[in-house]
Amino acid sequence: MTFLGQYKYILLFYLILVAIIYYNRKKFQFQAKIIALYRTKLGIALMDKIAKRYPRLVRSLATIGIYVGYLGMLVILFFIIHGIYLLIFVPSAPATFAPVIPGIPIPGSPIFVPFWYGILSLFIVVVIHEFSHGVVARAYNIPVKSSGFVLFGPLPGAFVEPDEKKLRRQSNKVQNSLFAAGPFSNVLTAIFIMLLFLLVIGPAFSKLYTPLGVSFTELDEGLPAQKAGVHINEVYNMVNNQAVKDISDFIKVLDPIKPGDAVTISNSQTSYTLVAASKEKSDKGYLGVHAATRYTEDDTIGFKFFGMLVEFLNWIYLLSLGLGLANLLPIGPIDGGRMFQLLLHKCFGTEKGNRFWAKTSLVLVTLLLILIATPIIKAVI
């Protein structure tokens, strides 16, 4: 498939987006030529309403967010240090950091974000993040000058703009509360979705659908399963005369299989005997199959909708954690950077703190660029 054929809907989406921005270019503010801001007052009244109705709750959560923010900062710093260690001593390890562009596979990245799931999830995560900044600002009577939409390169998002002059006059606690509010809201979102999966979606799925076995979505060319005539999309529930009801059973049964071992895959109608092949850098037997669990009624609209909902929530969960941690990097003007700057001011004074902050930001940005660029270059080369 050609590039245009493979990415036609993604390209069409961005062409429409660019056309809308160009047509309304007088309403946008452009920064660094790749950032387009569209200022509105959207959501500010709701921020104000929540802050006035629940001021104690908002301030209490914001205070907790400070501690979570600094803890998250330590976590992301550990990832950077660990990533550099892996880059030097374990070159084959997957990338620690990778850019996220929905619908576009990044060379060397261990994760691919589907286009529509990614765009919608990312937008929701960013809206929650920015809205939380606004609510905390209003809880401390800091005006929110504007809100709106932003296009950062190819990625759509949102922003909230508090009154910076009044914010700087606040105590360190208030400023930290506002900076930490966005990342903390992303962490809370991830926790909420995790609980939703554990307490609602998981039990509901178990009651509605029963696993029947596994089927193969793809067979690798020239490998044992294809050679034996195994069919794709056919349900198999026995492997080596052991019952297999789902993908975890399938993996468990195959785990002790070595290259050259015979493997029988069957159901009530058919049976296939395969001889496991070897795979480079592994002593495990390899069949050349891509398996998935099959369920009762998995061809119905209800099941497919359930699956789409689960995947959508899963991407919100993953991107919430990713965006929350990324914003806690102690770098420059992002949330973690501003929190780190306040900490340095308190420890060393404004002038020395700013010098140390600038040098630290430069070092961390350099390390991040190395961690992001190296796997991409390796994959391309």
Terminal Cα separation, in Å?
22 Å
Which range does the strand content fall in? 15-25%
Query: Rg from C-alpha positions?
Result: 25 Å
Number of extended strands: 12
- Main-sheet strand order equals 1-2-3-4
**Gross geometry:** elongated
Quote the average pLDDT: 91
Structure classification: alpha+beta
N-to-C SSE string, H for helix and E for strand? HHEEHHHEEHHEHEEHEEEEEHHH
Helical region count?
Answer: 12
Largest β-sheet summary: 4 strands, antiparallel
Catalogue the unreliable spans: none
Helix content: 55-70%
Question: Would you mind describing this structure in some detail?
Answer:
The protein is of the alpha+beta class. It is 57% helix and 17% strand. The strands form four sheets. It has a four-stranded antiparallel β-sheet with strand order 1-2-3-4. A four-stranded antiparallel β-sheet has the order 7-6-8-9. Helix 4 crosses helix 7. The chain is elongated. The mean pLDDT is 91.
Write the topology of this structure:
Elements: H1 3-6, H2 8-23, E1 29-31, E2 35-40, H3 44-53, H4 55-89, H5 115-139, E3 144-152, E4 155-162, H6 164-168, H7 172-208, E5 211-219, H8 224-228, E6 238-239, E7 242-243, H9 247-254, E8 262-266, E9 271-275, E10 277-279, E11 282-286, E12 289-295, H10 301-326, H11 335-348, H12 350-380
Antiparallel strand pairs: 1-2, 2-3, 3-4, 5-12, 6-7, 6-8, 8-9, 10-11
Helix pairs in contact: 3-5, 4-7, 4-12, 5-7, 5-10, 7-10, 7-11, 11-12
